[in-house]
Write a structure and sequence with these properties.
By secondary structure, the protein is an alpha+beta fold. Helix content is 24%, strand content 17%. Strand 2 and strand 3 form a beta hairpin.
């Protein structure tokens, strides 16, 4: 069971500061604008040159002909972004923070599946990655595998309006068009919805089935001013 240790951010600022420091440990951001850019990971030293010079050019583009006004605009936008509530799909747990983190070892493997849900509650999502069981550190595609969503074996009804009942899953980074060599070590992740049923396939090994957790929520009051009709489920005889 996960421990109760938790570091919960109330707004995006400390979260993005952490991401910026992890991605660019040698750069010290001086304001929200610089934190915002570094947390996005768009800055490439070999391509863009000096970080601060690159940002000055970006600020000039925000308001051509009035550099000072451009700085005010980008700083205001960045502050508004960093002041938002801390919600981010795929934000991996900070070392030592085990709030809503679930780890299960993969049979006949040195790795485990980690499912984490902090800051994804409103979207009813969870993140997934692979961690080395002995160290707990995440690694990108540490072995050959395919990951699929599959129908829930506990639900026998067919729901065609809910879309495809199964399909192959791809990492967020792969969906963005990144090649494996372009993904920062340990950054690869999948985004899944609560209750999703998944099948991990590895050549030469038995398949591994698991179900993404469903958060327990308080029942919300009935919101419609209406009379209620209730229908009983029909029992279907086995074939």
């Amino acid at each position: 069971m996960p421990s109760t240790t938790s570091t919960r951010f109330e707004c995006c600022r400390p979260m993005l500061e952490y991401i910026a420091k992890r991605g660019y440990p040698d750069i010290v951001p001086r304001n929200d604008y610089e934190v915002s850019h570094l947390s996005c990971g768009n800055y490439k030293p070999q391509k863009h040159g000096d970080f601060y010079t690159w940002l000055r050019i970006d600020a000039q583009l925000a308001c051509p002909g009035d550099v000072e006004r451009g700085k005010e605009i980008v700083l205001s936008r960045s502050k508004a972004r960093l002041d938002l509530p801390a919600r981010m799909s795929g934000f991996k747990p900070i070392p030592g923070d085990n709030e809503d983190v679930h780890i299960r070892p993969i049979p006949n493997s040195e790795f485990s599946i980690r499912i984490f849900g902090k800051y994804m509650e409103d979207k009813q999502q969870y993140g997934l990655d692979f961690v080395r069981t002995s160290t707990g550190k995440s690694e990108n595609s540490p072995f050959q595998y395919d990951l699929f969503t599959v129908p829930d074996p506990d639900v026998q009804t067919v729901r065609p309006m809910m879309g495809p009942r199964s399909g192959r899953l791809f990492s967020v980074e792969s969906g963005l068009g990144l090649k494996p060599s372009e993904i920062r070590p340990g950054a690869e992740k999948f985004i899944l919805f609560e209750g999703a049923c998944c099948l991990l396939k590895r050549k030469g090994h038995r398949d591994v089935y698991f179900k993404v957790p469903v958060r327990v929520r308080q029942k919300t009051p009935f919101k419609y001013d209406a009379d209620i009709l209730e229908f009983q489920a029909t029992v279907v005889a086995p074939e």
